[in-house]
Amino acid sequence: MTRVSETSEAAMTSSSSSRQEGPGGLWDSVKKATFVIGSGILFLAAFGNSLTWHLQRFWGASGDFWQDLWTKLYLKFEGHDAALFYFGTMVFPPLAFWVTNGLLLLVDITGKPAFITRYRIQVDKNNPVDPAKLRNALKTVIFNQVVISGSMVVAAYYLMSMRGNPCGPELPTFHWALMELAFFSLTEEIMFYYSHRLFHHPSLYKHFHKQHHEWTAPIGVVSIYAHPLEHMISNMLPVALGPVILGSHVTTTTLWYCLALVSTTISHCGYHLPLLPSPEFHDFHHLKFNQCFGVFGVLDRLHGTDTKFRGTKQYERHTLLTSLTPLSESIPDTPKKGQ
Question: Which of 57, 68, 264, 321 has its CA 20 to 30 A from that of 13?
Answer without folding.
Answer: 264
